[in-house]
Amino acid sequence: MSGTTTGRRRLDASVLPEYEQPVRPPRLHSRGSVVGVGALVAAAGAVGLAGSLLSLIAVDVPSAIYRPSAALLTVALTVMLVYRAGGHMRIWVSLVALLCTAAVVTEAAGAVAVAAVATGVVGGVLAVVLTCPARSFGATVREYLVSLLIAGGAGAGVAAWNAQVNTVVFVVAVGGVSLIVVLGLVWALGEGLHGLGRNHLAVLAMVAVVSLLLVVYTYAVRSYGSTSVINTIDSAIYQLRTTVGGVPRPVQTFVGFPALVVGLRLRSQRREGWWILVFAVLATSSVTAALVSPLAYPSYIGLSTLYSAAIGFVIGWLVSRFVMAPSSARAARAIEPARRVEPSRWSGLR
């Protein structure tokens, strides 16, 4: 017999994890050029955000600055999203820039509406894609806040467009297009459906069922519910609005924001976490589209989002503890849990 002692294999904590996706080579080879372009995009986004926020505040400034500010913010967000996703900068940024320019110059209702949809979609998707994997509680809170801030900033851009649209149709359009865009990105980042393990596929299916049930139930109650039920719901909403200033939204609270937490944490171990983040777009896109109506109260929308985000974070954290628990006693005895890395926040994912 050999003198070497054999036993159970354990994870080798000395081997550093590597990112599994091929990444595009840098488009700019000079570090000075990279810093300069990044600073220019950041400055444009900051100016656009400041001008967009003025549309929500009762200050004496010319209303003519609102739409150009929204256009500037949209182009800056698009540059960040395309770079992060590894897309073709010349194609997508040029198309969005042309759309925003046409909306600002012509002020045609259709062009303004489409530009507002583009702002909502880009902001909603970027709020998910620009996050990083989170292993600890503090990192999860940080990434959660990053996502909320990006979505809120894009929401200010949507408000600055002041598009004359049907609110329900607009929200559905932003949410639907955002889901299509993020599905295309996640298909590559999550290695397709075949990359899902059985447990995580079950979680994904459960989230999809809960989302469908919430949407169907809400529609059914509003469309076919009895007068007493509708009056009870309206009364509860009124009481919450008058006492605490906002009302949590079911899809955000029970699906979107919990999915954001679970996806952020799961990404630190497995790339399948990207699939959970598909449902997080339901929350971020609804935040970006919330202020499209000129009759919407920013304080009410802000407080409602805050309450939804707070409750959703607690639910998501509890679910993530269950999802990320070791699947067996052998896995629990491993030296180091499975760990995964991604490029930094300001680098491309592909």
Give a verbal description of the structure:
By secondary structure, the chain is mostly helical. The chain has one domain (31-328). It is built from twelve helices and no strands. The protein has helices spanning 31-54, 66-85, 89-106, 109-129, 137-161, 167-189, 198-224, 227-244, 250-266, 273-289, 298-323, 329-332. Helix 1 (31-54) runs antiparallel to helix 2 (66-85) and helix 7 (198-224) runs antiparallel to helix 9 (250-266). The protein is globular. It starts with 30 loop residues before the first helix and ends in an 18-residue tail after the last helix. The model is unreliable at 1-13 (pLDDT under 50).
* Helix content range: 55-70%
How big a fraction of the residues is strand? Answer: under 5%
Total domain modules: 1
Mean pLDDT: 85
Radius of gyration: 22 Å
Q: Topology of this structure?
A:
Elements: H1 31-54, H2 66-85, H3 89-106, H4 109-129, H5 137-161, H6 167-189, H7 198-224, H8 227-244, H9 250-266, H10 273-289, H11 298-323, H12 329-332
